[in-house]
Amino acid sequence: MLRVGLLAAGLIAGLSPVARAAEAVTEQWGIFDLTLAGPATGNPFRDVKVSATFTQGSASVTADGFYDGGGTYRVRFMPDQPGEWRYTTASDTPELNGRTGAFTVVTPSPGNHGPVRVAHTYHFAYADGTPYKPIGTTAYSWVNGTEAQQDLTVRTLAASPFNKIRMEILPRVTDSRGTASRPMPFAALSGGERDFTRYDPGFFQQVEKRLGQLRELNIEADLILFHPYGKNDGLRLSATEADGYLRYVVARFGAYRNVWWSLANEWDLIRTRTEADFVHYGELVSAHDPFHHLLSIHNSAVIFNHTLPWITHASIQNGSAVEASDRAELYRDVYRKPVVYDEVKYEGNLPQRWGQLTAEEMVHRFWEGTVAGTYVGHGEAYADDPDSWLSHGGRLRGQSPARLAFLKTILADSPAQGLDPIDKWQDTPAAGVPGQYYLYYFGLNTPTTWPFQLYKNGIRDGLRFRVEVIDTWGMTVTPVPGDFVTKQKDNYNFTDDQGRAVALTGKPYLALRIRRVDDTPAVPLTAPNGE
Amino acid sequence: MLRVGLLAAGLIAGLSPVARAAEAVTEQWGIFDLTLAGPATGNPFRDVKVSATFTQGSASVTADGFYDGGGTYRVRFMPDQPGEWRYTTASDTPELNGRTGAFTVVTPSPGNHGPVRVAHTYHFAYADGTPYKPIGTTAYSWVNGTEAQQDLTVRTLAASPFNKIRMEILPRVTDSRGTASRPMPFAALSGGERDFTRYDPGFFQQVEKRLGQLRELNIEADLILFHPYGKNDGLRLSATEADGYLRYVVARFGAYRNVWWSLANEWDLIRTRTEADFVHYGELVSAHDPFHHLLSIHNSAVIFNHTLPWITHASIQNGSAVEASDRAELYRDVYRKPVVYDEVKYEGNLPQRWGQLTAEEMVHRFWEGTVAGTYVGHGEAYADDPDSWLSHGGRLRGQSPARLAFLKTILADSPAQGLDPIDKWQDTPAAGVPGQYYLYYFGLNTPTTWPFQLYKNGIRDGLRFRVEVIDTWGMTVTPVPGDFVTKQKDNYNFTDDQGRAVALTGKPYLALRIRRVDDTPAVPLTAPNGE
Q1: CATH T-level fold of A116-412
Q2: Using one digit for the tens of pLDDT, what is the confidence trace for A209-237?
Q3: Which one, out of A152, A154, A276, A406, has a CA that is 20 to 30 A from the CA of A427?
């Protein structure tokens, strides 16, 4: 269901110097869609530039506009504050220049928390401060399938735990669905060729429809701007055309609060672009996105340099890294940014080793990533199904999503600031907040007992904790009777003052949740990795 | 034994416009030590600048000089080509300016391979192309102990496998040996204070004596320029004084071909310096070192940004990373530079967990690092010995050095280009050169058989390999009878055409060396990590 104010507010400016759009109500982090009439001749996509500067008090935001066909230009704005905003347009085209107006932004509707930002160095939160803990999935080409398939995908997502989806913009030209019947991003020329300086607004409008639906579902759209697959048109763009495409995409989609930019999938497999090209694209997107969406780039064998300042988080393909939390943690230290393992191989039964994880292994990787203080992405693919979720969305059939929904409930009930490794580079697979909350994960180990023990940071003698045993596959949480009370054991660890241990079932994939239950003051924390 | 030409060639310039130093013979990558007479009044360390430009044909190298006390100035030059060189000095001090001369550089003596450089992205080689495969150790304060202790350390090193040593320049003021009887780097003032703008040449000359001895032993001196320990004077330098100290050190020591610069040990524990300070120091050292020595910086809990362009290799403290090769490998992908795990905890029996590795675990970490395509550093410390090697050099007593000597023989007999992971991010702990050479390491696993299997890259049916079983702890190499002949098994791997397996002893710490023995042409390699 679309709420008023989340819809693009359509109004035509230009009738008077200050057009008062009394009928248009935009909410904070919604889209104010400034519509302007201008020239329809020549190549307006390439040759006509328009922007608008939006102001409120001392705040000023300039957004690029774009041509939407039929003599219509739009400048989209995602206001980050309620109240009165004014705008002034700028263009070399006189009829688009110097248009001014004002509009009112109302407070956000329930469920609208704004765009996702980096928080606490390694984690995420919505702009209103609400924690955002990604449980991502991937359905690369879903917005390029049939309407029915896309509708099905939206229904599936609505019933799933996923709050982020990786998706390509540019259609795969060679895939079995053909291209003739679909809108394509670039304008068709005779002979099957394309004009890469003109776009088909219909293509982008249908993507926007899906972005809006994802936004309603509070699902972040991790938009893949270039990819190496299926002889897609992005591989053929000249340098100028590539810049033009990126600016068009950023101008069109940037006001959707749920957009993330992923410059590429498997950037190093895109043979027509160099690493320097992608640095340029990153700088360009960063410079032209006034809303500062999350921005990263995904690798095949060659990880991009995620230390670059315009990269907000590390988007990494590496299945091996999340086989164990002590591996998964290492990239955090390197990047000092959120680490999202967007591709860790996929649940399924493909002959290729990237698509034959058991559901247990997929869930296991999510948990290992979680107790490493990182985030993991899902996907599934099946040899007997050319319409597998990974490529085309549709229906999920794997056994991992139910367990990821369970993990999501655990995360929802975890500290808002995110989970960080408790004692990094040591032996303990635990994340949490020292002295307050601990999530241990035993992975493939099958212990029958766990002697209660906490690393010293944030602990002193006499603190009380309650322990729950989590079966991550069985999706159960079982409280352990009684409190555990800390008593210093040695230079590094505290145990229970009665020497108590936690009984475990001897199954794999067990975890522990340990929460402080006394109300004494917090113990001051020391630096991590204290020796 | 010092050879002629490795000794500093002392000559006094300034007697004639072109002083011909017929008696001075400098060899390539030796030190030409240009000696100049100048003012001894005021503070020549701080106030007198002199440099010299050395030319041969179109080659031109400018090196900073330094004041060595007693009215003597020196400009040191490490020539990288034999033949005739000329020099011209430059200084604002007239008597040091415009001095010219010429000298002859002869070809290097046997054993002089020049400075170590990065080679093949992840590895090292001497300037003459000879592979350099670090087996490093650490004795932080050894050049600040007694003469007898230093002499003992040199003898110990001569009999050890180590070809690199991490060592601090700046003495620990608080250590038990006292400071009164030792030369100190900064000039003494009354009342126990120091003038941080004046240096004691005697201190630096004794360090140089040890650098020269290490050079004779072909041991690289990984010089730690700042460290957090023992209230050393480096902690107290002002910004200007710190820059002056670094420039003095670079000017004095930079012509020693075996010098590496380590900006800091545990940089993040140095509370008087910021990360930005160390970026500045790195840029300064890089700009003022005309000989381009290897340059890095070592961490405690916060890894430095080793992607910065002036950092030649990643110097990392992380013991956990080398517990398993699939962890150790991860930093390679991030930095695309050599990765040297300079601190992986230490062999010994300290109560601190950083100093209680068994010898087996220390050796194990070297092997895990090796099959990850990285390098590892050694150290040892004992609770019953305040003179432990780690701090003061002296004698080695651990059980790991003998096994590291054994590893060194394996590396000496491995491909010159270095060992790279064969099939990264997958399950196989093997490094080597695809199609030619493989080193598998089983670590803590205790297999009794290994079905012969090689990843597809560089392999086709019918290639012949010989296998040797290595007991890395027992220090034995046992050939397996007969050849193994490749036959494709599936999309990823080849096995033996007779399905043969290698029998193993069931001990831990076993490795395999597998070498191609047929002489058919090499199979073209594909990109790594092919799916």
Answers
A1: TIM Barrel (3.20.20)
A2: 999 999 999 999 999 999 999 999 999 99
A3: A406
Domain with CATH 2.60.40.10 in chain B: 9-106
- Only one residue has tokens 């917005």, namely A143
Whether chain A has a CB inside 8 Å of the CB on B434: the answer is no
Written as six digits, the tokens of A420 are 């960080």
Q: Please, where in chain A does CATH 2.60.40.3950 lie? A: 422-516
Residue B429 pLDDT class (50, 70, 90 cuts): confident
CA–CA distances in Å: residue A335 to residues A119, A338, B326, B347? 14, 8, 19, 30
Lowest mean pLDDT among A346-355, A494-503, B22-31: B22-31
Q: Chain B residues with CB inside 8 Å of A426's CB?
A: 320, 353
Q: What mean pLDDT value characterizes chain B?
A: 93
A234: left (phi over 0), alpha (psi -120 to 50) or beta: alpha
By CB atoms closer than 10 A (0-12, 13-18, 19+), residue B412 is: exposed
Q: Is A351 on the interface with B (CB under 8 A)?
A: yes
- Residues of B numbered 79-138 whose beta carbons fall under 8 angstroms of chain A's beta carbons: which are they? none
Taking the C-alpha atoms of residue A515 and residue A528, their distance in angstroms, rounded to an integer, is 20
B491 reaches A (C-beta below 8 A):
yes
Helix (H) and strand (E) counts for chain A? 10, 34
Mark yes or no for CB contact A425/B323 under 8 Å.
no
> How many CB pairs (< 8 A) connect A and B?
71
CB distance B263 to B297 below 8 Å: yes
Q: Which fold is adopted by the domain B422-516?
A: Immunoglobulin-like (2.60.40)
Q: Which residue has the tokens 């039964």?
A: A349
Range A367-379 average pLDDT? 98
Q: Which CATH architecture has domain B9-106?
A: Sandwich (2.60)
Query: What is the CB-side half-sphere exposure of residue B87 using CA atoms within 13 A?
Result: 36
Average pLDDT value for residue range B41-60 = 97
pLDDT confidence of residue B306: 98
Q: Do A531 and B320 touch (CB under 8 A)?
A: no
Arithmetic mean of pLDDT, A233-245: 97
Banded model confidence at residue A245, pLDDT cuts 50, 70, 90: very high
**Do the Cβ atoms of B252 and B289 come closer than 8 Å?**
no
Question: Is the CB of A352 less than 8 angstroms away from the CB of B303?
Answer: no
Dist. CA B183–CA B204, nearest whole Å? 9
Query: pLDDT for A453-484, tens place per residue?
Result: 999 999 999 999 999 999 999 999 999 999 99
Of B307, B319, B352, the CB nearest to A305: B307
For residue A177, give the H/E element and its range.
Answer: none
ipTM value greater than 0.90: yes
